[in-house]
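Question thread 4412

I'm putting together a teaching handout and wanted feedback from people who do this every day. The idea is simple: show students a protein as raw sequence, then show them the structure tokens that encode its fold, then repeat with a second protein so they can compare. Below is the first pair exactly as I plan to print it.
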Amino acid sequence: MKRTSKFTLSPHCLILFKDLGLDQAQLLKQAKLPADLWQSLPASLNAAQYFDLWHAMEEQIGETLPLKLAQHLNVEAFDPAIFACLCSANLSAAMRRLSSYKPLIGPLTLDVREDNQGLLLSLDCYGYDKPLPKSVELCELAFFTQLARLATRTQIVPAALYVTQLPDNAAEFNDYFGTELNLSHQVALRFSTEDAQRPFLTENAAMWSFFENDLARRLAELDASASMTQKVKALLMELLPSGQVSADQVAGKLAISKRTLQRKLDGESVNFQSLLSTLRSDLARQYLRRSSMSLQEIAFLLGFSDANTFIRAFSQWHGVPPVSLGIRMKRELTRIIQFNRKVG
């Protein structure tokens, strides 16, 4: 799954901001973004700026942001990658297309799987080590649900919904989705097989052909412009759970020799082992925020053979075992949440 360090903010976003009643100038101040950003669209944001913008939107609207976003969702505000999904035959095909083009939209990955229980969509973020805006998770779930309803003109109800943070106004979201939100270590939702295969009334093969070449070009540009460090990091993110993360294995995946890999990284003043350790360290901190994840699960996701090996590595990175740091981080996160509720 491709990853990139820069994401394009489309001019279409201004339509959505206006529909949502957001103060666009104040958004830039809150997110600490350039004051002339709206006059420079399309513009590139990094992951931190992307999520800072979400935080700013959440500050203005509050936890109802995802519900308002679903209410005002229309094709005028769609990025071409999303509009292309509406041209698909059904939800299953649309989500597989969107999974490929997600790097063009933001620092989120979309994993699409189908089994005898239906269509499972799982989301994750990258490139950001602060607490995610709670609204991001719910906006993604609301978007997928609303997209399915728009395209089929049917009040589709997800079979299951999972978030890592429950909103205070959970009842409002349960009413919108038609089912309850469940607390989990993973952001995900499931649609029944019947709904996943329900024909899209918006299917348009000719329109899809129009978008396909441009989207493929934009994806290719991501690959061409990526540095060797970015390519290696993206590949390591995919390979970590398999444990196949040696320099030889990464070089093989990139179709270059180990010597060439190291020479290119040297040219960017980067050491492969340091890059791997830093990536594991950053991901470990993110995973520790998810209280329901065991050390064994985190060890697996980071490509360690067992929890003890992970604990030793983590202690070398941070000077304390993961349990100690995890407790501190969760206490701090709780303190921040309580403070925000008081001032809000």
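The second pair follows. I'd like the answer to focus on this one:
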Amino acid sequence: MDDWRGATESADEYGVLAALEVMMPMRDGVRLATDVYFPARIDDPAGRAEGLFPVLLVRTPYNKRADDTRMRAEYFTRRGYVVAIQDCRGRYRSEGTFAFLTQEPEDGYDAVEWLGAQPWSTGKVGMFGTSYLGWTQTAAAVLNPPSLAALVVNQAGANAYTSSVRQNGAMELRFLAWAFMEAATHPEVVVDPVRKAALENVSSLEWLRQLPLRPGLSPLAMVPSIERWALDLYTRGDYSEYWDHPGLNFAKFWDDHSDVPMLLCGAWYDSYTRATLENFAGLSERKRGPVRLLMGPWTHGMVDVSYSGDVELGPTAPVAGNLAETFDHLHLRWFDHWLKG
């Protein structure tokens, strides 16, 4: 039965107890920093609530301790979920070297299975997130971790060469701007006053106006690991085996993808529009799922507002107040049905 929007939803009945900087081991010995939020007893906020709980996992390169991320974790924890927010490899407090998308399948698989095996877990793990946080979900799912039980993928990729990082081969230059942004927050840079000051004052727009980008001749050279993957994305304009990696080309691995309930969300005014629809078409014909699609007149990440750019679309445009109280509330109903139902 797929009547998930009519399911009884979890009440706000727990406190929140957080275990910060849990260093989760990966298969190669690298440890990823993870904040784990546990349902707590209302009468004793310092004590975990008794029983087993389903787990929700978010894997992010943007700092697991960001206010909006922490608030979302607490929302679900108060409603009876353990929530794990993880810094991707080589980002913020996690060990290892960050490599754009190509590290995410194995790391995602290992994180899902670690959480599913914990004594406080029901063994069911769901994932959610937007943009890169959506990529990390599908990257894990193409390796089919047994504990993965449900996904809410919002505005993320399908094939990096045809419909996101590149559009049929044409480079989306925003990913080079993204590289400059990531360089400024690299773990080695934030503790190096000289490099930190230099990279914080970089205008990525000015560097994009001075293309082509050449090895060693841009501020990215101050962080060689980031320069390496940025130049790979930039210079590999012809299709090659590079673009077949399961972290970059999920479409190539749809057959291997976990067959779990998936809610794929997209926006009509977003560069991931085509990718979202491709994933829906490809996965819905291969999987029992169920695989469901939600599209709306939104821009990137902006699903609870009534406007796109400078155009007001009216009160029926947002998720909030129409499909659910908020986008998080919509997630709750999905996960309640598939992880608790």
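Top answer:
Good format. For the second protein you could add a caption like this: The longest helix spans residues 327-340. The chain is about 30% helix and 25% strand.
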